[in-house]
Amino acid sequence: LKNTWRVLVTGGAGFIGSALVGQLLASGHSVLTFDKLTYAGHLANLDGWLDHPNHSFVQGDIAERAQVEAVVEQFQPTTIMHLAAESHVDRSIASAGEFVRTNVIGTFTMLEAAAAHRARLDGAARERFRFLHVSTDEVFGSLGPDEAFDENSRYQPNSPYSATKAASDHLARAWSHTYGLPVLVSNCSNNYGPRQFPEKLIPLMILNAVEGKPLPVYGDGCQVRDWLHVEDHARALATIVERGRPGEVYCVGGESERTNMEVVHTLCALLDGLRPRAEGRSHAELIRHVTDRPGHDRRYAMNIARIRAELDWKPRETFESGLAKTVEWYLANGAWCAKVVADAASRLPRDLARKT
Ligand code: NAD
């Protein structure tokens, strides 16, 4: 195979990272997954890929310099795709320390290790090296009804999670400008799809609905998010590494804006068809409005003109077809759900575990 990469994927045992690892291996690249296996990371997410001849897994912490340096030295990556992060907004509101440590110190540690590694490469290998920093649209704050975020949007993070992601974006930019590290940054909208830990909106609603539990919707449920299928996101990340311009930012999104209430009603309608409740009652009867999240952003939307025009990437999955497949995946993978929830409960402090 020509032009294959040796990719160090941080956070590869998480939701997006595992989809990315699968795609990279399918494309013939070699992958080393480096992941701490927090409550959100599970080897079960890499089922089918753990024994792949081009894949290795190392458990480790991106904020531990010695561990990061050792894995970079041993693997000699051509490419680092950095996804490891604490990623759940509600947890960041309850307890922000781990978010600062992993998202800020961890990204700093990865950038330093990458710069030192690249400095030791020679000629073509140095030219070819890339560092992709994977980030979120949440760093740009909240939008009014008619605007969309793009690569020049002002940073206005509102939650502890988005503040730490914003800080990490700035570090990534600085390592590009100051040290000439070929960094690419992607800011992506909300993802959905298989293997998302059931604390996030879509899997939480599916699993609660199946168990006949209440479906808690924050506030009026009119918050708007732009949804992208995780396989489309993973394909965007590989495309950015392959053809993106170092030093640039790429906004990634699904052009599928939905209010949270629309998402939950669509899920309920899908489940009414696939898993009817007794006496023909709709799952929508389980919806309960609960006190809104403090500082909850009202609307996110993405202008994806740059990645479309420059890199010829666009989403392939429509929200309707992607959501239907996702519901089917969760219904068919009850064992995965039970395993990751049980694993997480054993790894989280008790007060935080109760939230899942
Ligand atoms: P996730 O929570 O499912 O996975 C995060 C992974 O990182 C887990 O496997 C976890 O074990 C690992 N991890 C956490 N701390 C670590 C540490 N200190 N050292 C090593 N590994 C550690 O998250 P996700 O939804 O897959 O998100 C991945 C990335 O994409 C994050 O950087 C996130 O900010 C970004 N992102 C997510 C979304 C989304 O909708 N989920 C949207 C845009 C961007």
From TrEMBL:
Q: Which residue numbers delimit the NAD(P)-binding domain?
A: 8-325
GO BP: any one term: nucleotide-sugar metabolic process
EC nos: 4.2.1.46
Can the keyword RNA-binding be found in this entry's annotation? no
Coiled-coil blocks: none
Q: Which catalysed reactions does the entry list for this protein?
A: dTDP-alpha-D-glucose = dTDP-4-dehydro-6-deoxy-alpha-D-glucose + H2O
Mind listing the UniProt keywords for this protein, alphabetically? Lyase, Membrane, NAD, Transmembrane, Transmembrane helix
For the protein in the UniProt heading, the enzyme class is lyase
Pfam families the UniProt entry points to: GDP_Man_Dehyd
Membrane-spanning ranges? 7-26
Q: Which cofactor does it need?
A: NAD(+)
Query: Listed GO molecular functions?
Result: dTDP-glucose 4,6-dehydratase activity
The family assignment reads: Belongs to the NAD(P)-dependent epimerase/dehydratase family. dTDP-glucose dehydratase subfamily.
NCBIfam families the record matches: dTDP_gluc_dehyt
Instruction: Return the protein name.
Output: dTDP-glucose 4,6-dehydratase
